[in-house]
Structures are given as structure tokens and as C-alpha cells.
Write a structure and sequence with these properties.
Radius of gyration: 22 Å
Number of strands: 11
Strand content: 5-15%
Strand order of the largest sheet: 4-5-7-9-10-11
Structural class: alpha/beta
Bound molecules: beta-L-rhamnopyranose, manganese (II) ion
Helix content: 40-55%
Amino acid sequence: MNTDFQKRSLSLLSEQLDAKGIKVAELVSQISAFQIAVPSWALGAGGTRFGRFSIGGEPRNLDEKLEDIGLLAKLTKRTDAVSLHIPWDIPQDIQAIRQKAADLQISFDAMNSNTFQDYGQPLSYKKGSLSNADSAIRKQAVEHNLQVIEIGKSLGSKGLTVWLADGSNFPGQAHIRKALQWTTESLQEIYAGLPADWKLLLEYKPYEPNFYHTVIPDWGTSALICRQLGERAKVLVDLGHHLPNTNIEQIVATLMQQNMLAGFHFNDSKYGDDDLSTGSIKPYQLFLIFCELIGGAEEKAQTWESISWMIDASHNTKDPLEDLIQALEAISQAYAKALLVDRRKLAQCQNEGDVVGAQEVLQEAFLTDVRTLVCEARIQSGGEADPLAFYRREKIREKLIAQRGKGAQASGL
Ligand code: RM4
Ligand code: MN
Ligand code: MN
């Protein structure tokens, strides 16, 4: 990126935005402040049930995962936290990991429990965990979540994310009401072990790995359960966890209206939980989601600070670090565009029933090229003007392969 070109683009854009009464300096500082956590499982190859293709130079342990995120943070200045999945990332030496994270200026975002796999624990989760008909299995799953909280406490995390794979594959397999009741009771036990300054983020997903019914299929069920837990339990929206064409921005607006939005798992989707790069399929939808978020916070439905932001994606074909650079960029762009919306004019159009005018207001913002702004925010924060170009120019993947090996495999999916 040519700095002279960046300067000229910025001054042109400033002139255009100034004319609309928008202050570029303010926008740049808002974009700079917006940080998105990266999950520890997004740094290696994901694979599908048909196979897994190694990327080469994948991080072999938590230390190396933190190093990858540290690199992302340094280049993009858009992330400053990691979200750990237990037991994939159990820290062996808590003090050493804390120190490493501090050196890299990374903090610990919400912790993720895992009761969707067997990893040598006494009782199997094959037929479910928090919803299992066997109370001993439910107890084991509750205890696992409580242990995850303990690990999180020692790292300085402030949240527990629960994604439940529980459900059934065939009609009749599960007692649907009992499964919901058991899940609620199990979560109540977990919630009771949550420190006062923590929140519980409850995810939902309509199908996969169970294909007939999932115990928490949608935001409504998640919200119903959260209401039975307490005010620190809220709904986590993973963008890939909806049936095709669901109006996610409406879900966001509804949850904010109820002060029930815990946070996001960013990714993109064509059909289901595709875990594709954020903004690669439906950038307009992402923009509309940010419009609701900004509107909801401005109109004081729910505070911006109470919402957690995280990427949740899995990479089958791309270099994960390149993909994360792209995702962080796409999220920042959608946010920046949503900040440009003339909300006063939009409200006026809505009140007057001016359908065409309202659409124009949104399109005007969405069609503005904000790359210069996002780049400026990065430069001012000390990041790289063009992180992807830097990554390729410096041959970082090649260096990681030389250092960690071609067959190095990250723990995770
Ligand atoms: C699930 C869900 C969870 C994530 C796992 C790996 O589909 O999105 O958030 O932890 O995948
Ligand atoms: Mn998720
Ligand atoms: Mn998912």
C-alpha cells in the first residue's frame, strides 16, 4: 500500500463525509476501538467428515496458538483476545500462559466448554450431555463446565460459552420436553457456579450433529432457558446457526430490545453452519446486522459494551491466518459502513412511510468504499496498512512450516 495514495484517498473521503456532517477522526477512532476475539480452534485446518487436509506449520500447542494470534493482533490491530476451547486447549502451566498472553498483549475472552466429543472421560456423550436421560452423564457434563469456569478464572476470562450438540437423530429417540427440562436444570447448576462478574453465553443451532431435533435449536429457546437462569445469561448469535434465509438482523434487534444479546460468533454461510469467512457470502446482511447493533445501542436498548465479539470459523482450504485477516477486515468494513448510516434521516423516512427514501439511506452508506477508513484506523493504531500483502511478502506461512513442520496439526475440530 502506497502511503501517499492512502493519504490522498483519505482526504478525498474526508471531504465527501464532511459535506454530510460526518467526522472522519471520530469514525477512525470508533473503528480502532472495535476489537474481535479469535478462537483458538481457528488456527489449524478444520476439515469435514470426509477428510482433513493439512495446512502446514499449524500451531502445535497453546503457546504457538497464542503466537499466531499475537501476529494477527500486530498486523491488523483488530483483535486483542483469544477464546479457548476446553479440553482442546488446557493450559499446562497457567502462569506461563498468562505471561505469554500478556507479552503478546492478548487477553482471554469467553471460555468454551466441550461436551460434544468423547476425550477419555468416564461416561460417553454419544447420546447427549446436559440433556442426557442418565443423571450421571448430566452430572459429569455439569462438572466439566464448572472446571472450565475454574480454568477461565485463573486466566482472567469473564465468560462461559455453552454450545450444546445435544438432540436426537430420529423421531422417538428423545423425550423432547424432558430433554429441555434436564438441559435447563443442568444449566442452572452451571450458572450457580458462575462468578458474579462473569456472563453465560448460550448458543443455539438448528441441526448438526443431530439431524432430527436439537435441544436448543433457535434464539427463542435459548432466550427461554436464559430467562430461567438469571440476568447474566444471554443468547449468543452464531451467524451460521440459522436455516437458510433467516432474517438475522431481526433476531439481533429483538434480542437487543430484550437486553438479551450476549454476543456474536462471526462467520458466513451459504447453506448451514458452513463456517465460511465472514463477509464472503452475504456482506449486505452483515452490514444490516451492524445497523441494528448500532441503532440498538444508540437508542439504549442494550449497551454496546455488554456485547461480546468473536470469530468462529473453520478453514478447509485457506491458510487460516490469511482467512482471519480477511474476516477481521470484512467485519471492520461492515461496522464502518453501518456507522455511516444517516440515522436521523432513516428515522424520518420510517416515520413518514418513505420506503424508497429509507432504502436509499441504507444503500448510500453500504455503497461507500470504507477501505481507506479501515486502513487509516489500522495505521494509526500501529498496524500494517495492508496486512495480507505483508503476510505474503514476508512469507510467514513458509517460515511457520520451516519452524513447526509440514505435518504439524493443531488441536481442534
Ligand atoms: C459449533 C459451534 C461452537 C463451536 C463449535 C466448534 O458449531 O459453533 O460455537 O465451538 O462448533
Ligand atoms: Mn459458534
Ligand atoms: Mn458452528
